Amino acid sequence: MSAVTMTVHDTKADYRNADERWQAVIDRNPDADGCFVYAVKTTGVYCRPSCASRRAKRENVEFFDVNADAEKGGYRPCKRCRPNEMSTHQKNRLAIEKACRIIEAAETAPSLDEMAAEVELSPFHFHRLFKKETGVTPKAYAKAHRAKRFQQELHSGESVTGAIYASGYQSPSRVYADAEQTLGMAPRAFKSGGKGETIRYGFGDTWLGTVLVAATERGICAIQIGDGEDALLFTLKSRFTKADIAPGGASFNAWLQAALTLIEEGEAGCDLPLDIQGTAFQMKVWTALKAIPLGETATYSEIAERIGEPRAVRAVANACGANPAAIAIPCHRAVRSDGGPGGYRWGAEKKAKLLERESAKGAK
Q1: What is the pTM of this model?
Q2: Of 47, 78, 81, 100, which is the active-site residue?
Q3: For residues 243 and 199, is the Cβ–Cβ distance under 8 A?
Q4: Residue 331 known to be catalytic
């Protein structure tokens, strides 16, 4: 998940010329308030762009960057829009910007009530305004910023454990549960970026689409399904930023063909050597997934029971989403308790096709 950042946009740069300013007046655009004022020669008053007063004729209007310039020109402030005071829109935007800075500076995310009180708004009104201005809820903003801080701490050379607490997480379990969304891989793998590894890769066309298979000298480290070679290779390189990544040679081709056979035929090739990294929890989930027979499925809650973590249903789903080796680790066999297929890293349509095909094979 990309971190969300709210920055103070220099809106003055959007209203440099008279045409842009006049359009803002026509639109009564509240975003233009504070960027300039316009004065009406026939009335002797100046207004903010969003003023609801009857619109003047263009030939009677002139623009000023600031109130003081308008007043020097002999104009007085409009009593309706009060351009010499801060508008409600401006106050709201400044309040949300302040809340963003509070979230970013806090060691732990403040509660909704705390943030609302800090900017002197009711929790309900604050929550609605925050989402309107940033596009996300305060909780989502805090989560995204914490993930961004975690990545920065890792890049700075901090240890994984140190980065966890320096970025505001209260426990490692939360980091690892969110690792796929925040990092795209396990934290330690993200930190190392595959440094010192040589990874070979190759592509194949299958009934599921284009497949990328990658391997270290110890075994296959990634099986990715997609619709284009460039996108798949970009994903691989994004995951292993410091590894030596190159097209596979003769020795790699045997593993490539074995992986493609696994995709085409199901159980054939199930002993494919894997070199995958994950947390202890993820490894338990992946092992449980490999134990689900062809043609069968298990719910996320059933998998949680099988690994001795009955309350970790959501974490099981996250571990399925973090699976680096499609098909070899059959995360597509994990389904929702209501019988629905649930999510799938490589697309819900592909998951449905896989389950349908395997069900037919298992029935034979």
Answers
A1: 0.48
A2: 47
A3: yes
A4: yes
